[in-house]
Structures are given as structure tokens and as C-alpha cells.
Amino acid sequence: MKILLLGSGGRESALARVISLSNKIGKLYISPGNPGMAQWGENVNLQGFEEISIFCKNEKIDILVVGPEQPLVAGIADFFKVNNPEVTVIGPTKDAALLEGSKDFAKDFMLRHNIPTAQYKTFTNQTLAQAKDFLRTLKAPYVLKADGLAAGKGVVILPTLEEAERELDEMLLNSKFGAASSKVVIEEFLKGIECSVFVLTDGKNYIILPEAKDYKKIGEGDTGLNTGGMGSISPVPFCNEAFMSKVENRIIKPTVEGLQKDGLEYQGFIFFGLMNVDGEPYVIEYNVRMGDPESESVFARFSSDIVEAFIAVGKKELDKYNLKINPNTAATVMLCSGGYPEAYEKGKVITGLDKTKDAIIYHAGTKRDSEGRLLSNGGRVLAVTCLDNTLKEALAECYSTIDEINFDKMYFRKDIGQDLL
Ligand code: AMP
Ligand code: GLY
Known about the structure:
Layout: E1 2-7, H1 10-20, E2 27-32, E3 42-43, H2 48-58, E4 63-66, H3 70-73, H4 76-83, E5 88-90, H5 94-101, H6 103-112, E6 120-124, H7 128-137, E7 142-146, E8 155-158, H8 161-172, E9 183-187, E10 193-201, E11 206-208, E12 213-214, E13 217-219, E14 223-226, E15 231-234, H9 241-261, E16 268-277, E17 280-287, H10 294-298, H11 306-315, E18 329-337, E19 360-363, E20 366-368, E21 374-376, E22 380-388, H12 391-402, E23 410-411
Helix pairs in contact: 5-6, 7-8
The protein binds adenosine monophosphate and glycine (GLY).
Residues 214, 229, 287, 291-292, 294 line the site of glycine.
């Protein structure tokens, strides 16, 4: 099989690695990829759907795996249906990708299919007065969500009514998130503990991948600004059998069936961002892709052949796929540039990667200079993932690996997974 994988971050690194482990892989291309991914495939640089489509024709690509959400929300799966119908695309059509592309669409979908989620209403600048009335019916804290994609920044949680009203003005009247906040979802605050559940679906059948927990805040003890994610662990101790069975029956099944009922074509990963409220699961958000840095931990535990799963998706025969998961625990710690998620410097020389034997090192934001030295090239630079019998051992291995790695102003959280030990 020949595969083209789109993306360049830690998530795509994890996908590239697990694809490279398949017995079915002939050739893996990655666009644009990164220096770390070059150990698992060949990086190419393709711009726009047209170029990607022509490349797939010329190289006789069998499967296109779309890492990030943007090309899906922009309709790459639909473009391939017309121009490259012979290619299996792992990623939903544009209409189905609205599950991530529009919070209002996602909430409406959940309401329609009876999927547990926070109560909500959606407003525009035409209905600002009603929005403020609705806010007054809720208890603090207040959750405001820009409807569209806002690079992970579109959710704002405010402690007081005054601040919530001011934020609402910013979003609806002053276009704080541009077109993304021309509609705003206001919803009930759910108090609980979050986890991420992933499935791969062919539109009818699905397999449930290992669940994970990510650590979103920059500071220890989950404090400070939100980031793209500072670490992850899998499995999640509180996602026990009872909880996961509720997740499957109340959330996963109705979602896959709902997509079918609504005529939404979906082949690919579904990411359920969940809140566990006293043992009851609620959907916080859908994403139409894998999570980052969850993928780094999730795919470290994936023990069957992922390319066979992709082939089964293409044939709509995922019910025949034999999923194998390593029962051990995976932990991932992100190494970031000092200052991230605010201003930070790039171009710092990274050393010590040659001494990191037992860990998986995924690159998230790196590049090589003309002398071949590895440099930092983003806020999140490297993900260090270890798999061991227990969470404690996996974490210890991550942190002893990190002792070997260095770049100027390197920052990482020292408390990943501590809350679950
Ligand atoms: P999202 O961008 O949808 O993942 O939201 C960002 C974060 O906001 C989530 O990971 C949650 O921590 C938090 N959040 C979103 N919606 C709610 C809610 N209804 N209740 C409590 N926390 C929420
Ligand atoms: N880790 C959260 C996300 O990928 O959106």
C-alpha cells in the first residue's frame, strides 16, 4: 500500500510511526512532515488540494490520511471523491466535518440524537439582548464558544456575569475571533474531569481506540494559559468498564448512527472530548481528527496493523478488523520553547536525542539547518513518549529521558499524570 499522510506535528508523527510499523505499507509519504518523521516516511511538500490530488495520481497512492482538521473542514474528502475516487480518504466529508467546524452544528446534532451534552443556546449580533437574558438564567462560571474554528482559542470561561457580558460583546459586536464568532454558543458549565475518547469509523462500524487524558494548561497543577497540550497519558484510570460502556451506548453508537440518519458520510477518526460528571459522560466537543498530544500515547499502545484498519474503512468492513491494544500505560511529556503559548524564540539547537534509547521521540516543531543540526521551530518542539507496566514507571522513564535532552529555554511540565497516580 502507498499512503500519503498530511500534517507536520506530534499527532502526525504518531500516525507516521504506527503506519510505518504495518506489514502492509509499501511507501509512506508525508506532506509537509518534519525532520523526525523522515525516519518513518518520505517528506514531500504539497500545496493545496490540486497538488495533493495530482501527486496521489502520479504516485498511485492508495490511502490519504488527513491529520489536521482544516483540510477536512475545507472539503478535501469531497475533492478526492470527485478527482481521486480510487483513493481511500481517512477523514470525513465537509458536511460531516462541521461536527468540529461549527459548535452550533455539533450541539444541534447532539440534541437531535439525544447525546448527553451541556445545555446551550446559540446567538448572533441580532440576538445579543436575548443572549444576555440567557446568560442571566445560568450559574457562574459562564462558558462562551465561538461557533467556528478559532485555532483552539474560541472557548472562553468567565467567572462573573459582567465579564461574560463583556466577552459576548467582544465576540458578537467586535468580531473577536473574526467570522468564527459571528455566532456564539452559550452553555452550561459542567464540573467534572475530562478525558478524550477516539474511534475510527467506516461510517457504519467503528473500533474504539485507547482513551487518553491530556494536560492543556501551561503551568503545573493545571494553571495558567491554555496550550495545544503539554502531555498525555493512556489508559485513563477513571475510564473504567462501567464508564466506557456508558460512553459507547450513550455517545459513540448514537453519534455513528446519527451520522448515518443525517446522511453525513464519515470515514475516519472521531474524537470525543468528554467530561466525566460523577461517573456520567457528557460531550464537551467533537473533533474530526485525532488529538494532540493524545495520539502520541494512544498510538504507542496500538498493537494491530493500522493500515489494515484503513483498508477495512475503505471497504466498510471495519467489523471484521481485529483490534489489539497493549494493556501497558503510555505517558507523553511535551518539550516546549520557553515563553509558549505566548511569544517564544525558535532556532535553538537541540542536543541529546542520540541518548534516548527506550523512549519514542516525536517531533512537533523542529527543522534542520544547512549544517544538518536539529533546531527548535515551534512552541511545542518534541514529545517524549514511554510505555511501561504502570503509569508511575512510564512517567519515570519519560522524565529520565528528558534529562538527556536540551535546548535553550526548554520548558516542560513536571506533573503530567501526577493527579492520577
Ligand atoms: P474546547 O475548545 O471545546 O475543547 O473547549 C476548551 C476547554 O474548555 C475544554 O477542554 C474544557 O476544559 C472547557 N469547557 C468547554 N466546555 C465546557 C463546559 N460546558 N463546561 C466546563 N468546561 C468546558
Ligand atoms: N488535545 C486536544 C486536541 O487535540 O484538540
